[in-house]
Structure formats: structure tokens, C-alpha cells
């Protein structure tokens, strides 16, 4: 369909990410942490739909418990694109929220990236990929990765991205019954901030970890319990600042068996890696 005819974009994917490792290697004078991490995209996530409006209004038409529309990254992303481009169009935005909030899976950042990518297409604003990435960074450190749109080795605050070629894999993701505020974990006095940097070519052979995991587990013991349960089946660790934990498994069948055995106090999903973001072709 010619973009001039577009009035609606339905079921636009906003995939989850995993941090295969996350090292905190320093801190900038402005307080932002310097990181190294390996981002991996999954075939599971939220979905967003966008309906064109001609009155300039941006409206989230679904309720998200605990997140007001004014503070939602989706609405903020749409208004940022409006402001940056001078676009006078608006949109009704529907969010099908599948990812747990406060889970370290990048749900809010992924939703924001999908919003920028989709509305750039729907509104025909013509913003190129590098500009879109810079806009994304203004919304959050993980947003540029989702616009980058493929597995990546990330440095800086998470915005310096290089492609990472990884073999396909199946994962089990487990959500314990807690929500972890990212700011709390990064602000913790006991957080390790001087992990020795590694090189991208050494990633596969290096001993890695998630530096945020010990802090999160000490404050939210449910995360440690979830790691211990999942570690019965395969090496497990936390993603991002938590609360979700994950393990790579050998096959889809293995993933299904583990998910089926998950205790009722947790939620568990199987997920497969994907080579690239489903909307990557929309980023010019």
C-alpha cells in the first residue's frame, strides 16, 4: 500500500529484549551509568495500533493500570515526533500490553520505539534512522536499540550499538510477583560500578554477569527465588534491572516443559530469538 493512503497501522510489534549480560563499568559526571551489554530481541512482546487523526490530538485509547497517559512513553514519543517535525496530525494509539511492567524486558522502551517508527510512517514525516535514534535516546537509554532493530553489543549508556551475530536460541522467561523500579537499582550505593570492560570479540568467551542482579535480589528476594527455580533446568540470570529472569534452553519442547512446570506464584513464557525487529524495514 502506498503510504499516502495510510490511515491506520494495526498490530505493530513491540518485541521484548533480553540483556544476555549487563556490566556497569563506570559513571559519568551527570550521573548516567556507563554500561556494556548484549541485547537480544525476542519473538514475543506488546502490540500497538495507530489510527490517524487530523486534529493533532495524541490519545492513548487503552487503559494501563498504574501508568497515566501523560506519563506513558508511547504518548511522549508521539508528541516528541510531532514537536521535532512540526507535524499537525495526531493519532489514537491502542496498546495491547503483554509484557510485564517493571520486568527488565524493555517493554516501555520498545513501545516507544514502535511508536516513533510507526508514526513516522503513518504521518509521512520522513525522519531518517539516525535522527529517529537520537529522538529515542531522549525518551530512554534502551529505545535506540529497538530502533537499531537487531541483536547488538551496546556501550555508553546503552546507545553505542554494534551488530552482534548470535545463533538462534529458545528461552524461558519467568516473572516473579514483583515490580522493580529501574531508578532504585541504579541508585543503590552497593551497586558495582567498576567492572572491567570487555571487547566485543571476547564476548562469547568472557565470564559475564548482570551487575544489577545482586542488588535487585537483595531488595527483592523473590527474584533470587525465581533464579534458583529456573536454574534447575539451565543457567539462569536476571535481565536488565529485573524483575524477570531467563534461561536459554535446547529446544522449543524443553521450553514448553519448563513453562508447564512453573509454580503458580510465577508467570512463565517461552520465547525465541529473532534476527531483526519486525519493523526494521520501516526505518530509513
From TrEMBL:
Keyword set includes Kinase: yes
A Gene Ontology molecular function term of the record: 4-(cytidine 5'-diphospho)-2-C-methyl-D-erythritol kinase activity
Pathways per UniProt: Isoprenoid biosynthesis; isopentenyl diphosphate biosynthesis via DXP pathway; isopentenyl diphosphate from 1-deoxy-D-xylulose 5-phosphate: step 3/6
EC number(s) reported in the record: 2.7.1.148
The entry's keywords: ATP-binding, Isoprene biosynthesis, Kinase, Nucleotide-binding, Transferase
Domain GHMP kinase C-terminal stretches: 208-262
Catalytic reaction list: 4-CDP-2-C-methyl-D-erythritol + ATP = 4-CDP-2-C-methyl-D-erythritol 2-phosphate + ADP + H(+)
Domain of life according to the entry: Bacteria
Domain GHMP kinase N-terminal residue range list: 73-150
Active-site positions on this chain: 17, 142
Residues the record lists as binding ATP: 100-110
One Pfam family recorded for the sequence: GHMP_kinases_N
InterPro entries, alphabetized: GHMP_kinase_C_dom (IPR013750), GHMP_kinase_C_sf (IPR036554), GHMP_kinase_N_dom (IPR006204), IspE (IPR004424), Ribosomal_Su5_D2-typ_SF (IPR020568), Ribsml_uS5_D2-typ_fold_subgr (IPR014721)
HAMAP family in alphabetical order: IspE
Family to which the UniProt record says this protein belongs: Belongs to the GHMP kinase family. IspE subfamily.
Entry function: Catalyzes the phosphorylation of the position 2 hydroxy group of 4-diphosphocytidyl-2C-methyl-D-erythritol.
Family annotation (NCBIfam families): ispE
Protein name: 4-diphosphocytidyl-2-C-methyl-D-erythritol kinase
Organism: Aromatoleum anaerobium
Lineage: Bacteria, Pseudomonadati, Pseudomonadota, Betaproteobacteria, Rhodocyclales
Encoding gene (name): ispE
Amino acid at each position: 500500500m502506498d503510504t499516502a493512503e495510510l490511515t491506520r497501522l494495526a498490530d505493530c510489534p513491540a518485541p521484548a529484549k533480553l540483556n544476555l549480560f549487563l556490566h556497569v563499568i563506570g559513571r559519568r559526571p551527570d550521573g548516567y551509568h556507563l554500561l556494556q551489554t548484549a541485547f537480544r530481541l525476542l519473538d514475543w512482546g506488546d502490540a500497538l495500533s495507530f489510527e490517524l487523526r487530523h486534529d493533532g490530538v495524541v490519545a492513548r485509547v487503552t487503559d494501563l493500570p498504574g501508568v497515566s497517559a501523560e506519563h506513558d512513553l508511547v504518548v511522549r514519543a508521539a508528541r516528541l515526533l510531532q514537536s521535532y517535525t512540526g507535524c499537525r496530525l495526531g493519532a489514537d494509539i491502542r496498546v495491547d500490553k503483554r509484557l510485564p511492567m517493571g520486568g527488565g524486558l524493555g517493554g516501555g522502551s520498545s513501545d516507544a520505539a514502535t511508536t516513533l517508527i510507526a508514526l513516522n510512517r503513518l504521518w509521512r514525516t520522513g525522519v531518517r534512522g539516525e535522527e529517529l535514534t537520537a529522538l529515542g535516546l531522549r525518551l530512554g537509554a534502551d529505545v535506540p536499540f529497538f530502533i537499531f532493530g537487531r541483536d547488538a553489543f551496546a556501550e555508553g549508556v546503552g546507545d553505542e550499538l554494534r551488530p552482534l551475530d548470535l545463533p538462534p536460541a529458545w528461552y524461558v522467561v519467568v516473572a516473579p510477583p514483583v515490580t522493580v523500579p529501574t531508578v532504585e537499582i541504579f541508585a543503590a550505593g552497593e551497586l558495582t560500578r567498576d567492572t572491567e570492560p570487555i571487547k566485543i570479540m571476547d564476548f562469547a568467551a568472557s565470564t559475564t554477569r548482570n551487575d544489577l542482579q545482586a542488588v535487585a535480589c537483595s531488595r527483592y528476594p523473590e527474584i533470587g527465588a525465581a533464579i534458583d527455580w529456573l536454574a534447575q533446568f539451565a543457567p539462569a540470570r536476571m535481565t536488565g534491572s529485573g524483575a524477570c529472569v531467563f534461561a536459554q534452553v535446547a529446544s522449543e519442547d524443553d521450553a514448553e516443559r519448563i513453562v508447564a512446570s512453573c509454580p503458580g506464584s510465577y508467570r512463565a513464557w517461552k520465547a525465541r530469538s529473532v534476527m531483526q525487529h519486525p519493523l526494521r524495514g520501516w526505518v530509513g
